[in-house]
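BUG: 3D viewer hangs when loading the predicted structure for this chain

Environment: internal workstation, default settings.
Expected: structure renders.
Actual: progress bar stalls at 90%.

Input used:
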Amino acid sequence: MSQQQQSGGSRIYLSSPHMSGKEQAYIDEAFRSNWIAPLGPHINAFEQELASYVGSRGATAVSSGTAAIHLALQLLGVGEGDQVICPSFTFIATANPIVYLGAKPLFVDSEPDTWNMSPVALERALRHASAAGRLPKAVIVVHLYGGMANMERIMEICDRYGVPVVEDAAESLGSTYRGRQSGTLGHFGIYSFNGNKIITTSGGGMLVSDHTDALERAKFLATQARDAAVHYQHSVMGYNYRMSNVLAGIGRAQLEVLDQRVQARREVYRRYEEALGKYEAIAFMPEPEGTCGNRWLTALTIKHPGAEAIIAGLLDALGEANIEARPLWKPLHLQPLFRGTTFYGHYEQGSSVCEELFRTGICLPSGSNMSPEEQDRVIAVIEDAARGLRSASTEAAS
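Structure tokens produced before the viewer hung:
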């Protein structure tokens, strides 16, 4: 018996790249024209096409979503000794650019209704900062797993304190909040085109904004901040952050099928919810009224006193079946890198929302190229665990 047969079938990945077949034509065009450098017609077109899709006045294509956050914070004047508010429940790439600039993150909790930044914790953090006479230079909001944060409340609070907002929409391209695209409600928005995102350029990102002068400054900084001179002259520090023309070509083809990819991932979620929603202990990431998430990853929690052990068992069982899954993000205020950093909870006392999510949650394979048969394999493993959980609960009750 082969290793593949022993493991239950071919590998099912959490979120694998999904090519449309049109990418090669754009790549070939870049090679024919010899535009292989980090400039060229595909970059210009990709920026225009993405800006048009999301409804922003402009866009700047860069090497990663992390680079886009770094540039956005620099454009907002973040520097040595400043503070930036950031959700704790996110991938570390949201917070690292704060540290790049010598600033300090202030972490805030999630809220139960969205799993994203808690407006209650945010307001408490800003109130304390204002009383201390030291408001943060920016607030970074994340739309986790493709689900939208409570942007109306967050923007109202930040506008009241005069603090600009950067939207980390790395996971949420194609998601909407009251009809508006994620990444377009704050002062700057960023997207990621990493290999596991809803569309990919293999690696890359985009900075979007209605502040077109700022985007021009971002392009300048992203190309080593070269002054307008015949010779190489530099008056400020810059970065090698521009996207290549080849990767932009891939992005153009991917953008053409974005709506299909959103629809496919939402269908993956629907099938999970239909199959597993009948179990009382299983709860999926909420989608509040007025929002439409791209369901980049289907995420759920186990509501049971033994949730941690159940999640660990699920991860093991899925791994044995050759299925990739992962826990929810470990909160940044619990990471060794940020030990001792200030954290504002959703509740003034007791455990935090994001710590509970990390303890009880799991992300399931959610690729837009998953077949129904592959998804059935995932569901079967989870149902086995759910049936065991229900039997254990019944025995305990009797």
